[in-house]
Task: structure prediction
Amino acid sequence: MAHSKAGEPMTGAQAIIRTLEALGVTDMFVLPGGQILPTFDPLFSSTKLRHILVRHEQGAGHAAAGYARASGKVGVCLVTSGPGGTNLVTALADAYMDSVPVVAITGQVPISSLGTDAFQESDIVGVTMPVTKHSMMVTSADQVAPSLAAAFEIASTGRPGPVLVDMTKTAQSGQTVFSWPVKVDLPGYRPVAKPSAKKIQEAADLIVRARRPVILAGGGVTIAGAAQDLVDFAELTGIPVATTLNARGAIPDGHRLSLGMPGMHGTVQSVLALQRADLVIAVGARFDDRVTGKVSSFAPGAKTIHADIDPAEIGKNRAVDVPIVGDAKDVLQELGKTVAERLVAGATIDLTAWWRQIDSWRKTYPLGYAQPSDGRLAPQYIIERLAELAGPNPVFVAGVGQHQMWASQFLKFSYPRQWQSSGGLGTMGYGVPAAMGAQVARPDATVWCIDGDGCFQMTGQEMVTCALNHIPIKVAIINNSSLGMVRQWQTLFYGSRYSDTDLNTGDDTQMIPDFVKLAEAMGCVGLRCAKAEDVDGTIKQANSITDKPVIVDFQVSRDAMVWPMVAAGASNDEIQYARGTAPVWDDEKN
Result:
């Protein structure tokens, strides 16, 4: 952290900017308004802070989250009061569900106007309290630096999450004496990082006795920077690893111990391995319903080791035999040391029969797809080709829906923070602004946003932001002219009654909007691809454009579906490999 002369007089607004600079912030996503205007004046003169003017406050929040996920640093956004703050709520809830460190600064009316229903007044602290790790109001200039320092500490430590700091106009306009660093005093806030040695020993006992163990790696592994520790532990023990949606890339997909993603649209081998396991070692995962299916029937014969930095998650959804509170990196390192000692002392872990069974599932139920009967592109093929042609060290960001699941299935992830999407909240519209944030965080990476035609229309205006700020993201719109995942459910569970899921974006006679024309109107390059033989050339053309954002309209079949699938609320035992097939479990029992 930078040091400042003790006793510098300045306004609270100037102190906001100086504090952000001292905290090491280099980029932020902003949208000004009346009650935050005092802070935008000194921001204008800052030489250390790049401030990117977004087109909607939700975009600022998602961009800050995309920046945080791609970089591992705290993402920052700055907006005004009233609707400025309320427009952030979805992005904050999204970051909260996925444990993303974001600090959101909002303007607020002067303290003399609080509670009077003043113009653009809202109780944003109260509104966001359920969807942030912490929310606070700053009422005096003297509180500015300590409050922001505390916000960054809370957002980035323990289980990370978003923190909202509501800056009254009184605090911004008031005078203070600024000095740095400041003391951060957070009574009662004591995140536990080091796991209990006793619990590590108990876990090791179960691990060396298990014959059908599975590691369930969650997003906490990536957050903790523990991906290599996960691989080391898995290689030491030979235990297969299932990676949740937010943990994709924590172990390379090409690694022999990787099972891929579990859950509703996971790989068959991952789902069945967890169902047949005698031990589940969950690290940084929260037993989300999209992973477990009907939770009472999840991994019914397995004992459970659950390690998480948030003690509130342990035992919340799944009864636990060995609870371990601690940082995923520390847990995996300590488990590795302890199990290695057991192996040196003569213990053995023989998983030969277990791997024979898993390899049989892999061979029998590989990920695949059928070619569409309507002559249009298979979306899975596009994503396969993107995986091959995206270039060195790409970063992939996805919206929410069918395209998100196809991306998680058919992209090949090699390293952590290569992938991000909205997991817990399932926020349509996440993709474009988050990709913008990721590109700002990783300017040397090729950032591909895989989006749907529905998702894109929710936050696609941020492509204007990208064009004006020379942020050259590439967007692959998987255009099935539908709200695809909802349509899939209507096909399967509602007798093909397609109520309000037709978007008209891929209709050759209508095409509203025309994404190529829209791209050009927003200062981007627009491309369209409707034939399989043109896919590779289109992707290569998009990759060759580095000075502008690119939007590619890939026109795909609206009847393509995501398989495998476990229906919502069903047991994972009922996973179906493809439409019209019996549950895989029935085959296994016969």
User: Anything to note?
Assistant: The chain has three domains: 4-180, 197-364, 379-555. The radius of gyration is 25 Å. Residues 328-344 form the longest helix (17 residues). The longest strand covers residues 4-11.
